[in-house]
Amino acid sequence: MTFSPEQNPRILLNNGQVLPQLGLGLYKVGQDIGVELVQAAVEVGYRRFDTAALYDNEFEVGAGLRKCGLPREDVFVTTKIWNDRHGFDNATEAIDESLARLNIEYIDMLLIHWPCPMKGLFVETWEALEKALESGKVRGIGVSNFNQNHLEELIAHSSVVPALNQIELHPGLQQRELSSFNASAGIATEAWSPLARGRFNDNETLLGIAYKHSRSISQVILRWQIELGNLVIPKTSNPDRLAENIDVFDFSLDHEDLKQIASLESGLRTGPNPEEFS
Ligand SMILES: NC(=O)c1ccc[n+]([C@@H]2O[C@H](COP(=O)([O-])OP(=O)(O)OC[C@H]3O[C@@H](n4cnc5c(N)ncnc54)[C@H](OP(=O)(O)O)[C@@H]3O)[C@@H](O)[C@H]2O)c1
């Protein structure tokens, strides 16, 4: 089935941008398939794409979107500044490099990929993002993997509050406190590794809920993310799973389902700890 992009709920950010809630993650999408995958995703209704300098596929994402021929304002692209480009000058250059690779006039959402607290440069790096925002190179700026203490420091020393915080969030790491801090500061929460990279594919609890709704486990997890109000960016390179993952807007989880999913919290991290990663 092909989805109308209008079925994808819209999330209003603190800067006035309105984003489709579910987009496509592109980590580990190789250059050999990037262009075709973006085109296939657009075909089934995706309008938002999450890449990063680290993923080494910005060029292909931009090329795929240009090939689709959609008006520029109908698609949303996020990219991120990698850890070795912290600092004002370094980040400023990195932004121009990402823009050149994407070749799509402007970046919709630019994130600091990790806070790298040991480097002590995220406030200075943020100034480069603020400048890119002023100049129109980017339309929105945000962060990724920031804990509450990092956000408090950033907000205290800058003039733009991040539009979103992209964090690891799935049934095994539900991030209730950080999400609620984000919300209290007007920052949208975006879930990365929303499917916990397949760690719940055989989970009995989720299997029961999936069976009840005649859906897959991935669809149940993504529906849970949608109902929490998270922006969410599942990754797949498989055309059938592209369609499956966006087919989550016509069913609802009930109170019992939510209670059972809540019980899956275990502190599971599939990625690094933001306090330590540099
Ligand atoms: N900001 C950050 O630090 C950060 C870190 C990690 C990720 N991210 C972003 O978040 C995105 C998503 O995270 P992720 O890629 O780590 O993990 P994920 O989306 O939780 O899981 C992706 C994995 O699940 C499989 N999969 C996808 N849909 C499926 C389905 N319906 N049924 C069964 N398996 C399915 C994929 O395999 P197939 O491809 O074979 O389907 C892939 O192995 C990334 O692509 C990236 O854009 C950001």
Topology:
Layout: E1 10-12, E2 18-20, E3 24-25, H1 31-44, E4 48-50, H2 58-68, E5 76-81, H3 88-102, E6 109-112, H4 122-135, E7 141-144, H5 148-156, E8 164-168, H6 176-184, E9 188-192, H7 204-213, H8 217-228, E10 231-232, H9 239-246, H10 255-262
Parallel strand pairs: 3-4, 4-5, 5-6, 6-7, 7-8, 8-9, 9-10
Antiparallel strand pairs: 1-2
Helix pairs in contact: 1-2, 1-9, 2-3, 3-4, 7-8
This protein binds NADP nicotinamide-adenine-dinucleotide phosphate (NAP).
NADP nicotinamide-adenine-dinucleotide phosphate binds near residues 25, 113, 196, 235 and 271.
Quick summary of this structure?
With 278 residues, the protein is of the alpha/beta class. Helices cover 40% and strands 13% of the residues.
Biggest sheet architecture: 8 strands, parallel
- Structural class label: alpha/beta
Instruction: Report the total helices.
Output: 10
Order of helices and strands: EEEHEHEHEHEHEHEHHEHH
| Bound compounds | NADP nicotinamide-adenine-dinucleotide phosphate
State the shape. Answer: globular
C-alpha-based Rg, rounded: 18 Å
Poorly predicted ranges (pLDDT <50, ≥5 residues)? none
Give the strand order, joined by hyphens, for the main sheet: 3-4-5-6-7-8-9-10
In angstroms, what separates the terminal alpha carbons?
42 Å
Mean pLDDT: 97
Strand residue content: 5-15%
The percent of residues in helical segments reads 25-40%
Strand tally:
10
